[in-house]
């Protein structure tokens, strides 16, 4: 006999990409940054003494809030820090989505949204993207019991974006808040931060895992109006961010020169990679993220994933019901990308 | 108009003890360890390169599980790692307690249990301790809709414990799982780890914040039977523990010589402190934790808290409805405790 809630018993659980802890892999499966983080991050972490670690961390990560506020042009009180942006998504879902409620998300997108709805005992109410990865007004229709809408922008696995103007349109037609998940926005030409001031129902989440090369450190944040943040502070764990990550994240976001340089490199590699994969016959929607969504009109993709894996090159093979499959390949270093391209040239 | 769930709108939120980030304080209010952590911890953290931080952490913290398993004498698969034991409490509550359900806890105890129930849209169903801090069978009565029982052992704010035998009795009469919150168990003569193998409905949570002096690092864990852990792994955030804290926690739990030596010092100071406060007329139940619960038959306590605060000595003043107030004073270093005692001698 189970003591778990029925929705927990039936939960599939979010399956993250493979994270080999041993051996040498070319890892292009979970959109990590191929370059080490800003040296300022390691210096800040190294500056934390054992004595500091005996004490609880600052519950709201004031130092980070202040630094991020000055970078983003919003007040510090509009920022909620989280143990990775997954923590932010979790906190927002717990605060807004009730048992029996619904969470609106496009499809295919980040699979975690469905897991988070399931943990609440709520339903995910997905709306499919159009074949060109635009999103119709179906996203704002049939919204009964929809308590939160989430939109990854850039989206995963497609790497595509909806324009800021389109997001405003959608938000205005929704009966509930819209969380724009901008984990990849630093690689994009456009973002939605400034919409937060214009519409209290728009929230934007960010991650330091991708564009700051800090997936292992776990730090993300939400930008929303102060009254929203105040309430969410009651829902998060009291000490959800630790002293080491607060120090590292504060140094990371302070070093915008590093971020800008790093993003330029990734975007340049992304262009080259898009062209090379196009030459091999892959169909790739225009990516504004640090990965490419690759389908192929004739070649089956799962065997490609498996053969790359045998060569210790990890890409993400994804299969979406009623949509089809594809390879999501992270933009690695030039060397990693060249190794992957070389193998692919032998396969397709 | 609010978009939050009604239970979130009415949430009080857990109020943690004050964490001054600036200035010199004698901090005896949040049960931190007064001594720096094992040097092995800082060495392990220092060994993490920037390159490692670009990668996601091990989702299940295998290294820690293996090390903790060998220390505790349970299989690694019986251990769930969390971002502090608050994360563990959160995950267990989300997995077991539904909207409209009830969470059983004694009173007075850790206030977070009520907040966690509230976030679920559930009720806390408290049962008062007896005046001698024993717990009657009322704890296992009137259990309709009770989906989880939680028992801090040692309890906060009292520092007292229930015997392992009593906990077995209670667990067997409960219709739901019992989570024994052992954040302070390393300072106690007894713990419940071995009960997990005997009763699948008993879970034990632990923290590295107190007895390993790592409150700033955020690491805790749950010991439960494998089938329970498997399900909880689907509920936790995929990467809830970061690479730095996994390395630090693994080194910390491997250094049992450090822990044992540290606990001996704390326990010795606790004895001395208990005696000295007793001489000042305070009533103190026998503490098995790293803090003392101090009431006084004649002297009002809030002014004492306030005057200590003026002297930059922080203790925790707590006032429980239908129970009364008290000072919870952490066992600091001998020097910190002497400074606090000196001030108290001038006040009472």
Helix content of chain A: 25-40%
Which class of the largest domain in chain A in CATH terms?
A: Alpha Beta
Shape summary of chain A = globular
CATH topology of the largest domain in chain A: Aspartate Aminotransferase, domain 2
Instruction: Give the strand order, joined by hyphens, for the main sheet of chain A.
Output: 2-8-7-6-5-3-4
Q: What structural category characterises the helix and strand content of chain A?
A: alpha/beta
Q: N-to-C SSE series of chain A?
A: HEHHHEHEHEEHEHEEHHHEHEEH
Oligomer: homodimer
Low-confidence stretches of chain A: none
Question: Which protein chains are joined by the largest interface, and how many residues does each one contribute?
Answer: A-B, 80 and 80 residues
- The number of strands of chain A is 11
Features:
homodimer; 348 residues; alpha/beta; Aspartate Aminotransferase, domain 1; 13 helices; 11 strands
Care to describe what's here?
2 copies of one chain form a homodimer. With 348 residues, the first copy, chain A, is an alpha/beta fold. The first copy, chain A, has helices at residues 6-9, 39-46, 50-54, 62-72, 85-96, 112-120, 164-173, 195-198, 226-235, 243-254, 256-279, 302-310, 334-347, and strands at 26-28, 79-82, 102-107, 123-128, 146-152, 178-181, 202-207, 220-223, 291-294, 313-320, 324-330. Helices cover 38% and strands 17% of the residues of chain A. Chain A has a 7-stranded mixed beta sheet, sandwiched between helices. Chain A has a 4-stranded mixed beta sheet with strand order 1-10-11-9. The termini of chain A are far apart. At the A-B interface, helix 2, helix 3, helix 5, helix 6 and helix 9 of A face helix 2, helix 3, helix 5, helix 6 and helix 9 of B.
């Amino acid at each position: 006999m189970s003591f778990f809630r029925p929705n927990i018993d039936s939960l599939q659980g979010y399956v993250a990409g493979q994270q080999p802890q041993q051996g040498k892999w070319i890892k292009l499966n979970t959109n990590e940054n191929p370059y080490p983080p800003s040296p300022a991050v390691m210096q800040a972490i190294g500056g934390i003494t054992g004595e500091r670690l005996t004490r609880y961390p600052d519950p709201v990560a004031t130092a980070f809030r202040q630094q991020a506020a000055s970078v983003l042009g919003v007040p510090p009180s509009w920022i909620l820090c989280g143990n990775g942006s997954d923590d932010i998504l979790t906190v927002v879902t717990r605060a807004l989505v009730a048992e029996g409620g619904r969470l609106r998300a496009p499809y295919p997108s980040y699979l975690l949204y469905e897991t988070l709805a399931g943990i609440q005992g709520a339903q995910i109410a997905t709306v499919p993207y159009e074949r060109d990865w635009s999103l119709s007004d179906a996203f704002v229709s049939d919204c009964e019991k929809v308590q939160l809408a989430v939109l990854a922008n850039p989206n995963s696995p497609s790497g595509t974006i909806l324009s800021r103007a389109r997001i405003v349109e959608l938000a205005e037609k929704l009966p509930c808040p819209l969380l724009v998940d901008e984990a990849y926005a630093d690689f994009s030409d456009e973002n939605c931060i400034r919409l937060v001031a214009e519409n209290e129902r728009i929230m934007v989440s960010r991650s330091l895992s991708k564009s700051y090369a800090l997936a292992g450190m776990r730090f993300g944040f939400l930008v929303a109006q102060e009254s929203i943040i105040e309430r969410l502070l009651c829902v998060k764990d009291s000490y959800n961010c630790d002293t080491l990550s607060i120090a590292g994240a504060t140094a990371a976001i302070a070093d915008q020169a590093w971020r800008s340089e790093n993003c330029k490199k990734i975007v340049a590699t992304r262009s080259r990679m898009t062209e090379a994969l196009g030459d091999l016959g892959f169909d790739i929607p225009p990516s504004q993220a640090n990965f490419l969504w690759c389908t192929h009109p004739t070649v089956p993709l799962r065997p490609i994933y498996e053969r790359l894996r045998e060569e210790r090159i990890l890409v993400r093979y994804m299969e979406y019901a009623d949509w089809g499959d594809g390879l999501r390949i992270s933009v690695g270093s030039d060397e990693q990308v060249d190794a992957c391209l070389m193998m692919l040239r032998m396969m397709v």
